[in-house]
Every structure is written in structure tokens, then in C-alpha cells.
Specification:
The structure is a homotetramer of 151-residue chains. Chain A has 151 residues and is an all-alpha fold. Chain A contains 6 helices and no strands. Chain A is elongated. The relative contact order of chain A is 0.17. The C terminus of chain A is likely disordered.
Chain lengths: 151, 151, 151, 151
């Protein structure tokens, strides 16, 4: 799949908003993490263990937010870099929180161990891209959306 | 629909993480905005006007992020208030950016005018809830997730 | 929200693929049902009752499929009526299955009662639109996509 | 990512509803196709070519439906095999329609060529799993949900 992500970026009429390697890696990590969290939430529900409640909840949030992030990152036309940056920070934070919950159950439930690893990869990929994006952003000069964002 | 949102909150075994009125209003505004942005992006594509490119892009992002936000806000079990707060800030920001783009075309395209109004309502609802949530958060004492979030 | 849905349809440059009233009602019902199912799954998880496993699972499926349906129905540009028809049939089926599961727990858990009612409204709205869409489809002559669909 | 999908299936407390190999392949193909369609729609919008309207529209539908399918397929707890079967048929159909549109522009736009290939792989994976699932379904005896599905 990484090859498809990379080829879609390369054939897009607009240049990517960030270097292809960390962007490809981040889209891929978000998509992998969204799937792992969806599956882990389902597996945790099937364990019928009340202690897993917070783990299920954060995994469902993480799946939704990683999925939305993978879509925002897949678009190269007229990106709002302020929004992209917030998406990456949120994605890194929710993956971090989900990895933390999953790791607490990782010795009992192997699916939590697999999910925690996917979350950790996604946090790292988001932070890696965030550093790059901020650089790209600066090289483009003042962010025009900042004028109207009002937050 | 607001009545259904409110009844789901009231019948949940856990108390809502925020007062019912602004939470109901925010879930409703996110869901309405996600639909309006999906429809507006489609309408803009059908206009075949190259100037609408940035408007289509931010509307697609806004639809994805409002939809993810509506899901996170609909869950009351073990919320991670750090994540919820970031979701609300991101949602307010992307709605603001989408409203700004749509307003630029509102006199030419009536769908952009309708969409801008939905985005503006969503920004306001997110900021309204954000103020309340922060208060709730403080009344619960130090946020435990802060220990591990590392961001 | 129904007013926003209806205004987006009316201001779209393309005519809607179905009469405005049942289409508006169906988009609205899908969006309402997706939110109710997301909230009901979360409430059921919080009940810590193993008997709710199948209810949680179908509610999560129902939320995902109603949400996808609301997006497909919100688009009026070049609809593939074969796809639209399958989306409506699937949405009606999953809402029916979710309503069935929720009703089994409706006397014990009030959130299941609220959710079952939203599912039932969505099933009805999908079937109502399906009847109308099939008519529209026939009045347009043989469905061109049928040539290549191969299924 | 295929390894993560496969490990999540293997560590789930419930047996998968279908053999692991075609199920893993199908989840992976849905996720890949959803990303490719999201990126292709964005690239097509950036081409500013009115002839791409129908291609953008079906790509957006395909992204939403493949994504929903990937989630339904990732859950193993208490699957409703009637719903799963309809999801697979719908996903195969929309991928087929998107591949058809993308192929029409594949010589002009390389991103449409990449996207058409991802859609084709997804159609094949859905049909492959569908055959297997029907078999599994029969080996389990009469489908209990059929009693209440009413469609």
C-alpha cells in the first residue's frame, strides 16, 4: 500500500505540502492505526472485561481521528497548513493516549499489544511529519489563513 | 434530531462530560456542518469553476473533521478531556476556515452561503462547549492523562 | 437541520436525483441514526453487560454505514443510481438489524429504546426513498452503469 | 500493514467470520482503495477539467464505502452475515464503477491509472471474500438474522 500512497502523491498535479517520504509514512501509519484500533475495540468488547472500558473508548476515538487525519493528509490541493498542523498534533496525542491504555493490558490481551505498537508508530510518524511541515510552512512565508483563523 | 441527541445523553449510564445543553448543541452543529460541507463540496465540483478549488478542499476536510468530532463528543464513557479539548479547537478552526472560503463565493453561489452559515454555527457551538468543558475539567482536578500525554 | 439539508439540495447546480422531500427526510434520518448508534454503542459498553455484545457490534456497523449513506445521498453530481440503490437497501437492512437487537434490551436500557426508534425511522426513510428512486431511475431510461458493472 | 491486520485477527478472542487469508486481503484492499480514491478525487479536482466531474463523484463515494467496509470487516464479534454480504457486494460494485470511470481518464491522468488499479484489486478481493463468506455462512446453518431482516 505504501507504493500506492507514494504514486498518488507523485502523479498529483500539485506538489505535496510536505516531503514525500515522511508524508507517505504518516498517511500509511494513520491508515494502519485506524484499522488496528477498530479491530482492537471490537476484540476488547468481546473480552467482556469491565476494566477494558476506557481502552475501548479511546480506541474508537483513535480510529475516527486517525481516519480523518489520513484523509486530510491525502489531499494536496490548497492545504490549510494551520489545520494540517492541528490534525497532526491531535492525531499524535490520541495515538499516544490509546497506546498508553493498550499497553496497560498488553500482557493479558495480545491484541492490545499489537494495537499499542500501531499507535506508537502513528504518533512517531505524525511528529516526524509535523517537524517537516512546520519547516515547509516557514519556507512559504507567513501563513495567510492565520489572518482569518481568529483562534 | 436534537431531541434524540439529548435523550441519548440523558439515558447514558455515565454522566455527560459537559452540561447537556451546550453538548447537545455542539453534537448537533457538528453533524449539520458535516452534511452541509459534503453537499457544498459536491455542489462546488458541479459548478466547474476553477476558483472554487480551495473551497472544495476545505469543505471536504471540514466534513471529515466535523464528523469525527460528532463521534468523539457522542461518547461519555471515560473521556480523555485533553483529546476532547483538542478536537473542539480543531473543529472550530476548520469550520472557521471553511466559512471564510465559502463566504468569498456566497454572493455567486447560494450553496456556499448556506454552508458558511452552518460552519459559523459549528464554530460558535465548539467554542461554547470548549469554555464549559474547560470548567468541568478543572472542577475534576488535575487531568490524569496529562501525566502520559507527553505533548 | 432539515432546513439546511433542503436548502443545500435546492441551491445545488444539478437537480437532485430524487424528489426533495423523501431525499431530505432520508439524509436527515441517516445522520440522526448514525449519531444515535454511536451514542448507544458507547452507552452499552458502559453498562458492562456481556449480553449487549451483539448490540454494540451492530450499532457500530450501523453508525458507519448510515454515515456513509448520508454522504452518498448528499451528492447530486452524476449519481450512479445502481450504487445509490444498493446503499439504500444496505442501510435499511443494517438499521433493521440494529433496531431488532436494541428492542431486545429496550425495557432494561432506555438508550436502546431511543436508538431502536431512530433505526426504525431510518429504515422507513430508506425504503421510502428507494421506492421513489427506482421510479426516477426508470423514467431516465436504461441505467448506463449496468453495462459495465458486471455484478 | 497486512501483518498488523492478520495479527489483529489472530489475537481476537472470537474466531474470524471468514478464513484469515481472504479476509486480511480484503480489509487491506478496502483500506488501500479508500486512500487512493480520496487522493484521486483531490487530484482530479486540482486538474480543473470539467470532464472529470463524474470521476470525482464516484471516487468520493468509493472512498466512503470502502472505508465503511474496512470497518465492518475488521469486527469479528457477532457478525450479521447478511449485512457483511451486502457490504461486500456494494463495495465490489462501487469499486467497479470507480475503476470504469478512472480507466476512461487513465491515459491522460496517471493518478486515475493508479486509482483504477487499486479499485480493481478491491473488487477482486471483495468477490474473493464473498465466495468464502457464503461458504462459511452455509456451514453455520440457517442464518438467524434472516428471521427478522424482513428485506
Amino acid at each position: 500500500m505504501q507504493r500506492t500512497v507514494e504514486r498518488m502523491l507523485r502523479t498529483h498535479p500539485e506538489p505535496a505540502f510536505a516531503p514525500a517520504d515522511p508524508l507517505t509514512a504518516c498517511i500509511y501509519a494513520c491508515v494502519e492505526c485506524a484499522q488496528a484500533c477498530t479491530a482492537c475495540a471490537d476484540a476488547c468488547i468481546a473480552e467482556h472485561d469491565a476494566a477494558l472500558g476506557p481502552c475501548i473508548r479511546i480506541a474508537l476515538d483513535c480510529a475516527d481521528l486517525c481516519q480523518a487525519a489520513s484523509r486530510v493528509l491525502s489531499r494536496q490541493l490548497a492545504p490549510d497548513l494551520g489545520v494540517v498542523s492541528m490534525v497532526l498534533q491531535l492525531c499524535a496525542t490520541v495515538c499516544d493516549a490509546c497506546a498508553y491504555e493498550c499497553r496497560r493490558h498488553a500482557t493479558t490481551y495480545a491484541h492490545c499489544d499489537v494495537c499499542a505498537a500501531a499507535c506508537r508508530r502513528c504518533t512517531d510518524a505524525c511528529r516526524g511529519l509535523l517537524a517537516t511541515t512546520v519547516t515547509t510552512y516557514r519556507s512559504r512565508g507567513p501563513y495567510e489563513a492565520a489572518e482569518h483563523a481568529g483562534v
